[in-house]
Amino acid sequence: MINKILFLICILCFGMMSCEDEREIIKETSDIPDSIELIKANFHGQIVDNDQRPVHNASVKIMFENYLLGETKTNAEGNFNLVSQAAHAEKPISYLKRKDIHPTFLVKN
User: Fold this and answer.
1) pLDDT digits (tens, 9 = 90+) for 29-70
2) Contacts from 42-45 at CB under 8 Å and sequence distance 24+?
3) 79: β partners
4) Per-residue confidence at 75, pLDDT binned at 50, 70, 90?
5) What is the pTM of this model?
6) How many domains does the chain have?
């Protein structure tokens, strides 16, 4: 009889601990929006270094928070072009990265 009671207590404790873990997961992911408004936008420009020389083969990414919405690379003249690209309606962010330059964030307001 005592073994059955101890067994039931163990099961209840395990169930309560697993519920606690679920609450923590829900708390951590509650910042994720249910939906975001995306628009089609055109992004174009030229990436140059500090000496105003074109930066070839740099990655240009369109991001919303940690979500990649689109990307391209610059050509030999440092130009990039993204046409009809999905972007966040209120705050599209371009992210530029190349091995020999520091990452740069360009925010369009």
Assistant:
1) 445 556 667 777 777 888 887 788 888 888 888 777 777 778
2) 42/81, 42/82, 42/83, 42/84, 42/85, 43/80, 43/81, 43/82, 43/85, 43/87, 43/92, 43/94, 44/79, 44/80, 44/81, 44/82, 45/79, 45/80
3) 46
4) very high
5) 0.52
6) 2
> Are residue 93 and residue 64 in the same domain, yes or no?
yes
* Domain region containing 27: 1-32
- CATH code at 48? 2.60.40.10
User: Could you tell me if 56 and 11 lie in one domain?
Assistant: no
User: What single-letter amino acid sits at 70?
Assistant: G
The pair of three-digit structure tokens given for residue 103, joined into one six-digit string: 């990452």
